[in-house]
Amino acid sequence: MRKNDWILIASVLIAAIAWLGIHFFRPPQDAGTVVVSIDGEEYGSWPLTENCTVEIEGTNRLLIEDGQADMAWADCPDQLCVRQKATTREGESIICLPNKVVVSIVDGREREVDAVTMHPCGQHIIITKAGGSFVHFMHCAAI
How confident is the model at residue 143 (pLDDT cuts 50, 70, 90)? Predict the structure, then answer.
């Protein structure tokens, strides 16, 4: 190997070590707050760091545990809110349409973005991984 090869290898290793150091040793972010709304009106809010069970007007039961909010029970017929994955990040929500209940996370960790690419029309396409499947957000009118 030549001198330039060693310089390239050293540069890549230094960049990788710096990225790992920043990723693993940055200060922890606030876990956020769970906000529950019923029919557009705020019902209550609880920190994600507090493990508790919240009874929502006898129609839903929210479980806040280990930094996650999960709808544990609901009396609605479709049970879609119960089958949704637990929310942990800013902007995520659990919605029970029949009971008009919305559970959302505010002031928490940012959502994970797995990739950002450009569409031929020049607009960004954001790809996130949600519950094991990929979700594509396209910001382009002409696709």
Answer: very low
